[in-house]
Structure formats: C-alpha cells, structure tokens
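Why run this: before we spend reagent on co-expression, it is cheaper to look at a predicted model of the complex and decide which construct boundaries make sense. The entries below are exactly what would go into the expression plan.
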Amino acid sequence: MIDAAMNKDQLEETKLGMRPHRGLLEEFWHNFKRNKLSLVGGVIVVLFFILGFLAPLLTPCNPVKQFDALRGEHNPLPPLSRSKEGHLFLLGSDKFGRDILARALYGTRTLLELAVGAIAIAFVLGVFMGAVAGYTKGSWLDELIMRAVDIMLSFPTLVLAIALLGAFGIGKTHIGPIVLSNMVKIMVVIAITYSPRFARLMRGVVLQEMTEDYVAASKVAGASGGRIITREVFVNTMPPIMVQASLMMATTVLTSSSLSFLGLGLQPPRPSLGIMLNEARDFLFLGAWWYAIVPGVFISLVILGFNLLGDGLRDSLDPRQARRVQR
Amino acid sequence: MGTYILKRLLLAVPTLVVASMVIFLLIHIAPGGPVRVMLGPMQDEVLVAKLRHQLGLDLPLYQQYLRWAGKALHGDLGISVTIQRGASVMSLIVQRLSVTLEVAFLSIVVALLIAVSTGILSALRQNRLPDHIARVIALLGVSIPNFFLGIMLILLFGVYFLKPWGAGGFVPLRESIGGNLIRMLLPAIALGTAYSAIVMRMMRSAMLDVMGQDYVRTARAMGIGWASIVRKDIIKNALIPVVTVMGNAIGYLLGGSIVTETVFRLPGVGNLIITGVFRRDFPVIQGIVLTIVVVRIVVNLIVDLLYSYLDPRIRYGRGE
Amino acid sequence: MSAMLLQINDLITRFYTEDGVVNAVDDNSLYLNERETLGIVGESGSGKTVTALSVMGLIENPGRIEHGKILFKGQDLLGKSEKQMQEIRGKDIAMVFQDSLSSLNPTLTVGEQIGRVLRFHTKLSSKRIRHRVVELLKQVGIPEPEKRATNYPHEFSGGMRQRALIAMAISCNPALLILDEPTTALDVTIEAQIFELVNRLKKEFGMGTILITHDLAVVANSCNRVIIMYAGRIVEEALVDSLYERPLHPYTRGLLNSILRLEEETQGTLFSIPGEVPDLIDLPDGCNFSPRCRYANERCWQLDPQLEEIAPGRRAACLRVNDIDE
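The model came back. Tokens follow.
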C-alpha cells in the first residue's frame, strides 16, 4: 500500500512486503499537524513572543516614565484616560502614572527571557545528567545522579526557589569576583529547581530507546558508543522531551511570576508582571481593576499557550489518547 | 503490606537526612558568610565574632551540621535573629502552622470533591458537552496563577459585592468558627483550583485508560450491569494513579500556600518565610523549609499507604 | 437430528475508522447445533473475533452491525435491547477471552468476580453464591478452592486464571460457550489440560461450543465442524475429518502444510504461506486470497468467489476448487 507520506526507506520496506517502520519522530509530526489544540497553543505562544520581542517597537512610551494626572484625578487612571501631558493610557496607568500597556509589554519580554533562559539551562543540565545516567545504567554514577534528583524533587519547587533566593539575597549577587545580575541569578535558581525533572525524564526515555532493536543493530554494525547516543537515540528521545519542555515553560512562567509577585524577582522599577499584581493589591478597593487584570491576563495567556501546546504535543505523541473506544 | 510500608519508611529517612543537609548548607552559600549578611551594614568586628561564636559558626562544618540536626530532632530549630530577636523559631512556626495547614486541608477537600466527580462525569460523557466544558475549565484552572485568581476573587467578592470576608484577613477558630471558615473560602478556592484541575485531568485520563481495559470487556461479556462496572471496575482501578498524582501535587499546594497567604494576608508559615527572606533571618528560613520538607515526606508516606490499600498487587506482592 | 442453537445469516459488521471502512465481517452465514463444537480458524484480522463479538452484542463505536440476523434458539439477537442482551450474556451465552491477566479486574478477588456474575443472573443468597463459587473452582480443577476464591488475579498462574475465567463462564450453565483463543498465551502442556477440561465440561453441561483459534492443530481434537475465515470472509466449511483429509481451499491447504508433521522427514524449508494478510480497508480486486495463492489465475484476480456448497455440509469459496488436485 503506497502512501504519499512515506519516505524512501518506508517505500523500500513496502516493496519487500514489510510494513513500513514509522519512527517516533515521524509519527509525532504526522499527528501534530492534525491536532487543533497544539496549533492554538502554538499561535498564542508565538504571539506573545512577538509582543515581547517587539516591545520596544510596539510600546506607546517608555515603561518607567511617570506621567502626571489631570487636576482632580489621581493615578492609577483607568484605561483610555489621558495624562496631564496628553498621553493616552490605552490600558490605564499604575500608581506612579506609568503606562500599564508599556509595562505589560516589557514585562512580557522579561518574563519570557527569564523563562526561556531558565528552561534552556535546566534543559542542558538535566538532559546531560539524564543521558549520562541512562547510558551508564546501573553504575554508581547512575545511582548518584538519581539519588540527587530524588532529593531535589522532595522539595516543592517554589519553596526551593524561595530558599535559594533567600540564601543568595535579592538583587545583584557577588560570588567572589563574579557579579551575577539579578535576572541571571533568578534564571539559575529556577533552572536548578527544574533540571531534576528533565534529568529523570531523559533517563527514562534513553533507557527505553536503548532497548529498541535499532540500537542493538547499530551496536552490531559497529557504531561507537558516542555515535549511537548522539544520532539515533537523540532524535527519537526529543519528542517527549519537547512535550515536557513546553509544559515546563508553563510552570516556569508560573513560578517566576509568583516569585515576582512575592517581591523576590526582578526589582522595581524594572517592569514585571508579577510586581504589577502586587502593587495592584493596594488599589483594588479604589476600583483600579485594570491594574490587576491586565498583567494577570497576560501571564495567564502565556501559561495557557504553553499548556495547550504541551498538551497538544503530548496527544500527538500518543495517538492512543486521541482515539478512544466509546461505551 | 507491612514490608512495603517499612521499605518506604526506610527510604524516607535518608531522603530526609540529605535534604536536611542541603537546607543546612543553604546559609553557607550566602556570599560573604551568613553572619555578615544577617548583620547587614553593622559590620562591627567584635559583634561579628560574637555572633559567629553564638551561632557556632566557628566550628568545622560537619560539627555544625550535627549540632543543628541534633537540636532539630529535639524540636529546637534555633532562634530568630532578625524577625523577633530571641524568639524560638519553633514557637514562631507552631503558632502559624495551623493556619497554613487549615488552608491546605480545606483546599484539598474542596478540590477533591469537585475534581473526582467532574473527572468521572467527563470520562463517562467523553467528547460530549459536559466533557468539553470540564476540560476547558480544568485548563483554565491550571493556567491562571493562584495569586491572580485570588486577586480576582477579592475584586469580585470584596470590592464588587462588598463582602467583609472578601478582603482577606484571619479570625482564629476559637473566636468564631463561622468567621474563620468564611474567611477561608476564597483562599481555599484560589489555592485549590489548580490542584483540582490537575486531579480532575488525571481522573478523566485514568478512567478512559481503564475503560479500554480487557477486564471491562470481560465484565460486559458476562452481562454485568453498567453501573456496577463503572463502580467496581472503572473507578476502583482509576483511583490508583489518581492517588499518586494527588500525592505529587501536594508539593504544589505547599508552595502555593505561601503565595495565597500573601494575597489574603493570612498569618501562616508561608507569610513568615517571605518575611524571613526579606529580613535575612536564616534560622527562620531553614526552620520553615525543614518543616515543609517533613510535611511533604509525611504526606508521601500517607499516599503510599493509601496506594497499597487500593492496589492489591502492592499489598500482596507478586504471587506465583 | 439436533436443534439449531445458533444461526447467523448474512452478517455484515463494519468499522468506520479514521483511515477508512473496515469490512470485518463480510456477509457471512454459519450455524451451530446443540451440543456441537464448531471451530472458527483464521489469522488475526480474519474476522473471527468480531463475529463472536457480534453475537454477544459487544460491537461498539466505531463498529456497527450493518446487516443480518443472529438467531439464538430461534430469537433474533440483533433485535434485542441492551438490557435484554445483558440478561443473555453470561447466562445463556458466555464468552471466554484470551490473555487472562488483563481479563480480570486486579482489584477484586477472583471469588468476588465470579460471584458478581451469579449475583447478576441468579437470585441466590450471598451464602449460596459463595458455596457455588467454591464448587465452580473445584469443577475447573483449581486446588484449594476456598483459599483461592479469596486470592487476587495476580496471585494465580496463567493456566489457573484461564480456568477461573472458564468457571466464570459456565457459572450459570449457558447453552452456548464461545472460547476466543483460550490458550494462545499458555504453554503447550497447560493448553492440553485446558482443552481436556473444556471437553469434560461440554459433555457434562451439554453446551454448544464455538472455539476460535488460529491454530488448526488444536481444532482436530475438540471440534466437530470447522470454518476457515480469511479477510472477513468464510472460505471453507467442513466436518473436521473431511477438512484434514481433503482440504478444498488453497488457504486451508496452506494452513495444513504449515503444521509440522512429525511423520514426514524434516527436509527442505519450513512451509509458510507467502505474503501477508491484506489490509481490510483496501482489499484486492477479485479473490481476497489471490495475491498469496499459487493456483490463482486471471479469473481469480478479477472475480470475487462466493461461498458455495460443493457437497452436503461442505462449502468453499474458490473459483478453482474443482480444478485443483492434491
């Protein structure tokens, strides 16, 4: 049965009367295209990345610039009101007269920077540890790594992050001669918190792939150990890792915005969605709903996007989930 | 089953020990040394030396750890340095722990009631309207941060509906049970929603998995009524992975309560640790983190117990 | 002359999947007399299990029974409601599936599971049910039945689990027992024991039996008549001895040849039918078996053979049935 979606190898296999072997990656991509959820999630994520990336272009004004209110009014001002200088606050102003939309855009930018940076570091750390553990299965190295992972995982993530930040202190950190900016420090803290999950996942996936026939075949054919892992196994372990990465982006955004909300993140006057929510609390009873709703919606949408994307990716990986036998 | 529980207990001990070591080392990561950090700008050398000796920081590291751990086992978690000079950390925690636990407990109860029933309904009416609605709400529940949800609830009930209990605050149980509980309503919802969503999704997914199992087919082939199949075959088996997820998500709950206490201004342990971080009160930070880890481990053990009760394969081990 | 227990007329069962329509059971008719054992033989995907599930009324989305009559003791099962079918299943018609570890609920004891069937179909008291369960376990040859009734499925060995499933099936004295590959997952020695058990029970209870298997060798000892299915169609029907003596359809011949015969010299290669089972969504033009058939000619590639009665009790679906010589 010839199908247009087959590649050369599969064509060969079919000619020989064998059923074509669809690698995990191909199966995955085939299903992903069909899945609406992941598409919507992907669109949202891309949209926010664009917003963040283009913040300097899209912003109505400087996010730290403070405007004065018209006589008789005070900041925070509701959406569509004007400052004394005539500036139109599209989404309102905050307590210092700063444009909420501008701050939200820049806040998104920093939030995404933070999340991507943290996940990238966590990914590299975790995947490396997990791959080593998986490949040297049963050895003392494997045991050591997995014990460390278990210990790390016994701390709830937010608590661990808070404790680490508590130790390092808020603001710039000086470790001997090295100065870490606040942002980098937070990135590292979050990365440390999340790398165990990557490690554990990677190890599991590596172990699974190693039992596949093609790995044994490669070994027989004489490919060196390093080559086996990097080429074949790597390609096939990526899909579940990608699913996890997307879902972890969602949690990372949640954790970092929680940290900002608690005042442990980026310090003012740097615009941060979490801090905006914190500041908004004092003004809720004065009716300044936009102060909380705007940053809250931004954060929620970003998390939603990553969740949709991750869910969709996961469903694509496991087609069994998508088709169910009804009663 | 006895051996199973014993095994889990034995595993928990080294985890606790190593975790405590990590917590202990926490203050030593602080650049500049813990004492200088705690004293802040007052860098009088004499004071520094005195404090160092008082805190036992001039001893070798492993000795310090043993001292600290030994004291901790007796319930002595040190003395607060900056928050309430001289007050025992343990007493500070104990005062506030009940508040945190109460919120967490109520969140779980509310969350479970909603999650389990919705999950079951969703699976049974798969891909029909109730299922779609439930899945959307669950997705939102997982995506909206609990602090934002809390603020929105305050906006709704405190500002718009002007309910006095909608603004946060705390009334001790002994003063007024009603007053206490009503003020717990919004925090419990804010904290419990995400937890509820996670459990609901797992319940649904577990039910769908089980529904495709061969033993369901066997029961149907024997003419067993659908109601009995749902109860004894589907739900009973689906609960097993759900209980596991419930245990794992406790970590989220413990972290989330820190945020919820801040939003609703509740005098719990979460609020205290934040103050501790701002005031660089390391004994307080360490004490609270240790408490949280202990709670987590205890909860995990309870979950393991529940798990072995639900799954006879664990209880009776491998048969023939 | 015994009465007809089960009569299936012109059954069509289809599955509407994302990839296409699967004609799992493609216009088949068969019958079973009381106290008779009918074997249904075929490879996976041949439609044998779907036929049984159609009888039980267990075809679910995306499957549908499109056409036909299934007469059990004269009554058309396809006209019955789900509630009515529930009363019949487990009581008048019982089915035993393969792969017994996953066929039993891991969180209920074996006794509870058998007892549940009794509770649903009889009005016996709990006490009587417990006795009956122990009796049944004894009847199927499980040692220490009282203790075993309180055990969980994972504490049983594969063979014992299969016996427990059989106990469940016969608990209400069904008139028709359907066994779907009951021993595929078991060792050969256990397999022999299970068939011995089934043969004994058949005689004791006077049940009509349908034995579904892919193993032609198994059929020889247990069945009166055999039906061979291929790609959703019945391709041959005969009494067991007639089939072994003189198989008509090329597929049947192929199956018989694949069985290693101890008497013959072991020389040459193992015989197997070349090619593989066709995709039921995309069946070949003409005879379904033609791509793999060594006797196939031009006509076979173009015309679809119908199942015809060659002799009394002998049916075959092959255009060249008269041309082929042994």
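The two ends of chain B are 17 Å apart (CA to CA). Chain B touches chain C at residues 213-215, 217-225, 228, 232-233, 236-237, 240, 310-313, 316, 318-320 (CB under 8 Å). Bring this page to Monday's planning discussion.
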